[in-house]
């Protein structure tokens, strides 16, 4: 059996990839929500520097707890700590998204991935790489509105979510866009029904992820951290991947 000390030594040899965007008052965000506010309460002239931050939970790279959409769902503080350190699988569909900004992850994409990389293990974190994060920090490019004011953005299909959650028993999912649903699907349904479905299953998701192009399809691990809020529906996070060198 490998000791924690031996495992630590192995992880210290890994490359770290930051999966989060740096956030500021001008960061792209869901337009109905206010931007981050930051101000000095004390400065070094007072003997110490203290800042005050005012920010919504769903800002920048963030985690959504089930209660974000679902009545009676888990709050952030009810998520098990062991679910914040998971094997990371990255579905690279960046070429498909480059050709079609409204592309949705399909079950066929997942099966093709598994033919090449092996079956996605249970209790894993699966991220959808679209390279949409390369549009950061341009709000207009991130939202990508068409002439009708509808977002043309990629997302997860309901079938792909059902497959990963029911058949592969994943613990969490993530993506680079502001929403789980593609812009076209959200507009058609008049709501984020795929996001509701995901959170209704009792798992969490990360939104607005970054640097997935620096992470291999398999073999890495994701670690996620955020303040220990009481009764929070979501929070900005610092997430990073351990990548074997």
Automatic annotation (TrEMBL):
BP GO terms, sorted: L-tryptophan catabolic process to kynurenine
Entry-linked Pfam families: Cyclase
GO molecular function per UniProt: arylformamidase activity
Source domain of life: Bacteria
Name of the protein in question: Cyclase family protein
Organism: Streptococcus criceti HS-6
């Amino acid at each position: 059996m490998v000791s924690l000390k031996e495992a630590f030594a192995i992880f210290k040899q890994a490359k770290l990839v930051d999966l989060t965007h740096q956030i500021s008052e001008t960061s792209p965000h869901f337009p109905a929500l206010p931007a981050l506010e930051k101000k000095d309460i004390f400065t070094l002239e007072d003997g110490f520097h203290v800042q005050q931050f005012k920010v919504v939970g769903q800002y920048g790279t963030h985690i959504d707890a089930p209660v974000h959409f679902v009545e009676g769902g888990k709050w952030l503080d009810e998520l098990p700590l062991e679910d914040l350190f998971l094997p990371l699988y990255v579905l690279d569909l960046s070429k498909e998204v480059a050709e079609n900004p409204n592309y949705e992850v399909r079950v066929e994409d997942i099966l093709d991935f598994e033919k090449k990389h092996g079956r996605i293990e249970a209790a894993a974190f699966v991220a959808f790489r679209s390279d949409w994060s390369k549009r950061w920090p341009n709000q207009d490019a991130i939202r990508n509105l068409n002439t009708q004011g509808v977002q043309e953005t990629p997302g997860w299909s309901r079938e792909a979510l059902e497959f990963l959650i029911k058949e592969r028993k994943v613990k969490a999912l993530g993506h680079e866009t502001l929403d789980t649903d593609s812009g076209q699907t959200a507009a058609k349904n008049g709501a984020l029904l795929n996001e509701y479905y995901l959170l209704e299953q009792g798992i969490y998701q990360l939104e607005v992820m970054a640097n997935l192009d620096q992470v291999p399809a398999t073999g890495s691990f994701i670690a996620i951290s955020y303040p220990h809020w009481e009764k929070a529906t979501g929070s900005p996070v610092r997430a990073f991947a351990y990548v074997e060198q």
